[in-house]
Amino acid sequence: PRLMFIQIVFYNSSLQSPTKDEVAAWKKHFKRDHVYGIKKEFLDAAAFAMIPGFFLVDANFKLLSEATGSNPKTNLYTEFMPKVKVALHAK
């Protein structure tokens, strides 16, 4: 209950902004409550370079860690994931 997974779909299979129906299908297929699509105005080279992207944000929306792109600065397994455990146990 202390962790919320939010999935943001940037592109559909044609590398276009996903439609509402595509986002709904993604949500149903992966059985996720919080799935959102990105509007085409936000799609650019910088956004594409951040895929895949993982962000750890606390209850006050403070960014605690991020691991983005194919070669992230923060290692997903050795740096990012341990911070999730710490954040879950923080009061």
Q: Tell me the fraction of residues in β-strands, as a range.
A: 15-25%
Number of helices: 3
From the N-terminal CA to the C-terminal CA, the straight-line distance is 14 Å
Shape estimate: globular
| Oligomer description | single chain
Uncertain residue ranges: none
Total number of beta strands: 4
- Which structural class matches the secondary elements? alpha+beta
Q: How many strands, which pairing sense, and closed or not: the largest β-sheet?
A: 2 strands, parallel
Succession of helices and strands = EHEHEEH
Mean of all residue-level pLDDT scores? 93
Helix content: 25-40%
Compute the CA-based radius of gyration: 14 Å
Strand order of the largest sheet: 1-2
Overall description:
- The chain has 91 residues and is an alpha+beta fold.
- It has helices at residues 20-30, 45-49, 76-89, and strands spanning 7-9, 35-37, 53-57, 63-68.
- The protein has three helices and four strands, in the order βαβαββα.
- A hairpin with a 5-residue loop joins strand 3 (53-57) and strand 4.
- The radius of gyration is 14 Å and the shape is globular.
- It starts with 6 loop residues before the first strand and ends with a helix.
- The model has no long low-confidence stretch (mean pLDDT 93).
